[in-house]
Amino acid sequence: MKLDQFRAMLTVGDDTEGRTVLPVPDPSVERIFGGQIMAQLIAATAPPGSSKAVKSLQIAFPRAGRAAEPLYLDLEHTHDGRSLGHRRAVAWQGEESARRVVATASILVDHADDGYDYQYSAAAAGDPMAAKPVDFAVIPGEARVIGDGLDVDEAVAADLGFWMRCPDFNDTALAQPVIAYISDWPLIGTLLKAVPGVSQRDAHVTVQTGVVTHSMWFHQPFDVAQWLRVQIHGVRLVGGRGFGTGDVYTQSGSHVASFAQESVIRTPPKGMQP
Q1: Mean predicted lDDT score pLDDT of the chain
Q2: 191 within 8 A of 265, measured Cβ to Cβ
Q3: pTM of the model as a whole
């Protein structure tokens, strides 16, 4: 996705009936990408010039969004204090009288205070140019994978590391939406790396997958036009549900963001399509 396309995706407007509409970049796909909704919520919650930035976001996806239908947003300002504020968001489709809720979110905004600055775990040293260039379609820029990627044939550790940067995205207002956008994607594929005979290539083919909840925390400002190291860790896969975490570091090792995701990962019953 190019810069102008990404900006257009974040441009929220109203329709003729006064409803806030979230643009869907590709109405021909079957499902709306959850990372799209998270990026849009961040942009709508803290647009350029806001006195507070998004600190954290917790979102649930009760059902898949239909890309061919309009997607609407209700955003409620539930609290505004000196340092902290809270927003509640609902993304929905259909008619007002019979809403089909696609996502609900709780968003914390804040104005950072002066104080302590400690990082309790160091990022692994590395040179992005020593990593292997890779085409991760969801990343609107460059990516270089560290070690194994996602398309593995044998069961390996459920971990993924990669460098990413979006050289054209030199607007600081785009940093959080970009990381929110890409964070929705790699966790399910990382969990599947540890399952014998299965990989991300089997998602929606022989394995039923989908995101249930996703949480993000932003620790400090960062520049997505510079190299960032993303580390994904699979934690648990049981009962048809998966859980994993991710961390984002600058090239100098500053820990700038974290995320976690709960997902559905299961073999569908006989006769049912993934």
Answers
A1: 93
A2: yes
A3: 0.93
